[in-house]
């Protein structure tokens, strides 16, 4: 691996790691604080619907970074594939990162926004609950796939 490509690889790994950290932070810390504002503010100032609106805005902004990550994974891993530096583990992890990232940014976030625009009643429906649960599962798969991709690339970069 030449020096320039090694630097690109390190920047790539740092970016992947930062997106993983942002996803974990948003999913663990931000959601627990946002959906329990009554504990932090001392009373029920915000409704569950309003807390959900704040949360979706956080994830909407995160989806911009996820979209960029998808492009970078396609370009970087595609380049490595073309240079015959490929293995099945990296290909599988890349596939899951790309597909779950696209589902997160292009399916679940717009769908949840559409539910919210229809009002409180719609966000209390079974359809919304199923969509929300699906997005949670998708985010977990995305995080595991992204961690796997980071580890697999790190092992190759450290050789």
Number of strands: 0
Overall structural domain count: 1
- Beta percentage is under 5%
Biggest β-sheet description? none
Mean pLDDT over the full residue set: 92
Q: What's this entry about, in short?
A:
The protein is about 85% helix and about 0% strand.
For this entry, give a set of tags:
6 helices; elongated; mainly alpha; 159 residues; single chain
Structure write-up:
It is a single chain. The protein has 159 residues and is an all-alpha fold. The protein is 87% helix and 0% strand. It contains 6 helices and no strands.
Present the secondary structure layout:
Blueprint: H1 3-34, H2 37-41, H3 48-82, H4 88-117, H5 120-123, H6 126-157
Helix pairs in contact: 1-3, 1-6, 3-4, 4-6
